[in-house]
Specification:
Layout: E1 3-7, H1 16-27, E2 33-37, E3 43-44, H2 48-53, E4 61-66, H3 71-82
Antiparallel strand pairs: 1-4, 2-3, 2-4
Length: about 90
């Protein structure tokens, strides 16, 4: 199962607009993408509510994972978004 560790780059963390952007992109992937804070339980990345309950703030490390055909590309796409300041 591919996974990638990235640092949240948005100044507001994965909250509000950045969470909506990430959730929309994750839901569009051909596989289910999960995200977790380091040491926490993974949640479905395609849900804004799940992303907001992570309480992942600016500078926090998160782990993005997926399973199945196309998982590596899906993980890369979501990791790139999380590592970008989406609130800029």
């Amino acid at each position: 199962m591919p996974e990638k560790r990235v640092t949240v780059a948005s100044k507001v963390g994965l909250h509000a607009r950045p969470a909506a952007t990430v959730a929309k992109a994750a839901a569009a992937q051909p596989v289910a993408v999960k995200i977790a804070k380091a040491g926490g339980d993974p949640v479905a990345a395609g849900s804004v509510l799940n992303l907001m309950t992570l309480a992942a703030g600016y500078g926090d490390e998160v782990i993005i994972s997926a399973e199945g055909e196309g998982a590596e590309a899906a993980v890369d796409a979501i990791a790139e978004l999380v590592a970008t300041d989406l609130d800029a």
